[in-house]
Amino acid sequence: MRENILIIGGTGLVGKVILRILKERNPDYNLFVGSRKLSNQSNSLLIDVANPKTFNPIIENEIGLIVMSTKDDANEILQFAIQNNIDYVDITKPTPDLTVAYDLAKANKQNINSRIVFSSGWMGGIVGSLIDFVESDKSKIQETNLYIYYSVKDLAGKSSANFLAENICKPFIVYENNKAKNVKHFLNSEKFDFSFGIGKRQVYNLDVPDLFILNQLEKIPTVRVKMTYNSKFITRLMGYFQSFKIFNIMSLRERQSLFGSSGNGDQTIFEIIVKTKYKTKKISLQSVKGQAELTAFSTVLHIEKLLSETVSDGIYFSHQIHSSQEVYKALESYHTINIKID
């Protein structure tokens, strides 16, 4: 039996890569692409996430799994999946939207007869699995820090750029000894020594869903996320703009233009520091083909896991449906990913 999978946003940057990797690894899957404009492809479905009247093709084509690679601000697709017992994976939600969607799913918990998976953590939600791999007993972990190297030369979609543009002036929450602390993007600079030849860089605050996931779900007392650009000048400039409140006097369109630049492709790197009372462990990961490839591959791992029929109905974050060993092994064996543990 062929599995019917719908990628909503399948014409976008990450959606296209998900489709490519799925076809390469699973030629028996029956793949559909949902978007607001029909193409001449036989697998194209007209789906407008803001208009539930366009959702009928999901039922007509007996879709068993919906993958969200475009924003669904009102969670219309999430509610439709719950109501119709369809499996659901979302990789698009920034922290504020994720908490709203998670609360919505929990409120409907008694009616859920499918697998609802939130995979909006960094790079398709694989950080939790990598932490599990080096320390499975979360009660031992005192602190986790995520450091991100982002290249402006990398291919980038609009969603993360728009999120930064809309939220750059707003505080967000990090956690120190289980106390929520309000901070802002591109402040609280420190130096971090990146692997893979990058070296020491200034890193600044960044809001990603792993802050919420690791503290509120996994109960890690202290969680921080910081990032740097490939350009030291751009990194310092962002810190300067935030310190002197220049972002506050810029229009939304100007901020979108500032954060929305996209190159032709470059590497992305992230590193996770896991501290227990007696040890500090570092996981370093490099995606040679950048963020889109890594996010798409992680998403494909989640899809394959759900279709293995070993996951019971319920609400999950992506690291909760896997064994950490299988995720690590899959990442280690992928031809454009390098990963190491110190």
TrEMBL record:
Lineage: Bacteria, Pseudomonadati, Bacteroidota, Flavobacteriia, Flavobacteriales
SUPFAM superfamilies assigned: NAD(P)-binding Rossmann-fold domains
Protein name according to UniProt: Saccharopine dehydrogenase
The organism of origin for this protein: Flavobacterium pectinovorum
InterPro entries reported for this sequence: NAD(P)-bd_dom_sf
Domain of life: Bacteria
